Amino acid sequence: MPHLNPIDALELDNELDDDERLIRDTVSVFVRDRVTEHVADWFEAGTFPTRELGPELGQLGLLGMHLEGYGCAGVSATAYGVACRELEAADSGLRSFVSVQGSLVMFPIHRYGSEEQKQEWLPKLASGEAIGCFGLTEPDQGSDPGNMRTQAKRDGDDWILNGTKMWITNGSVADIAVVWARTEEGIRGFLVPKDTPGFTTSEIHKKLSLRASVTAELHLEDVRLPASAVLPGVTGLKGPLSCLSEARFGILCGVVGAARTCYLSALEYSTTREQFGRQLGGFQLTQQKLARMQVDLVNAQLLALRLSKLKDAGKLRPEQVSLGKLANVRAALDTARTARTILGANGITTEYPVLRHANNLETVLTYEGTEEIHTLVVGQSVTGIAAYR
């Protein structure tokens, strides 16, 4: 009986063009050579070599790769999604670094920034010379950013910012922060260099998830910025929400890689581990788990590919992105948990990747919009009734 290819059972990668396959293979080799062997140690130590890997990722053209000009590669959305998939096959922290840099920092500068801001920051961010972070979430405001407390007030031609941002990826290592604040005219985005007086960060420790990633709190106390620090192209929640939609697209593609890694780990283990005198994969209950994981993986792959094609055609809507994140993150998390049961006690060690991925996916389930928020987005889309409050 012919075997399904467990990596790509429906041969969906045949839908990729030559450039997209090249990016897939290039990222896969990079992950294998530079990340896979070390990431479990980074996770255990709670570290991520940002300054070392940043320029390497920039050299490969992966930072802001879906943007045009200013040193960015300008590849298709499908290629970006495939790159996210191959990055997250190693660890969600690696994909998060690339997502934050490209979709949450470079995208708003590219879309809403002045020409001077673009010229100053985008080439450095694309090369990995500079690292960025995105300041939206606050200690008391996560899913409801419209009620943020961070404020920016005019003082002559300058702005004075006060507030706190929480759970900020790359926050303590970033050279530039895109900070969203409430103003008299609405929510605005500000570019805050790391050495600005009054701007400090504190790294968050004791995490049980996404440990191979730098997470910090941002503190702004009477931070004075010139008028040139404001992103001039947007006012209101449209600004940060459009950035989040970009990042969510990378997530819904990326988690396919995490699910694939967990599935392959369980599949290999089930065909080499023996219990009761036979291979573990020869038992019906194990095959049920493997078959269910294969179906979930294929569904996630199909959804990611379809949404990638819609994005390339300029037809992807935010509620479709919410549907994709809601479905694919849940499928990846369920796959990781099921894979852990096949590995038994071995599954709880960092020798195998499944529980590390499961722990990471607990964070991915929540960030860039919780599962509950995306459920309500989809619910409103199909009923026409908002149910957030």
UniProtKB/TrEMBL annotation:
Its organism's taxonomic lineage begins at: Bacteria, Bacillati, Actinomycetota, Actinomycetes, Kitasatosporales
Query: What Pfam families has UniProt attached to this entry?
Result: Acyl-CoA_dh_1, Acyl-CoA_dh_M, Acyl-CoA_dh_N
InterPro entries recorded: Acyl-CoA_Oxase/DH_mid-dom (IPR006091), Acyl-CoA_Oxase/DH_mid-dom_sf (IPR046373), AcylCo_DH-like_C (IPR036250), AcylCo_DH/oxidase_C (IPR009075), AcylCoA_DH/ox_N (IPR013786), AcylCoA_DH/ox_N_sf (IPR037069), AcylCoA_DH/oxidase_NM_dom_sf (IPR009100), Glutaryl-CoA_DH_mitochondrial (IPR052033)
- Name recorded for this polypeptide: Acyl-CoA dehydrogenase family protein
- Residues covered by the Acyl-CoA oxidase/dehydrogenase middle domain: 133-223
Cofactor(s) it depends on: FAD
Q: Which organism is it from?
A: Streptomyces himalayensis subsp. himalayensis
Span of domain Acyl-CoA dehydrogenase/oxidase N-terminal: 18-129
User: GO biological process: any one?
Assistant: fatty-acyl-CoA biosynthetic process
The alphabetical list of record keywords is:
FAD, Flavoprotein, Oxidoreductase, Transit peptide
Q: Which molecular function GO terms apply here?
A: fatty-acyl-CoA binding; flavin adenine dinucleotide binding; glutaryl-CoA dehydrogenase activity
In what residue span(s) does the Acyl-CoA dehydrogenase/oxidase C-terminal domain sit? 236-382
| Stated family | Belongs to the acyl-CoA dehydrogenase family.
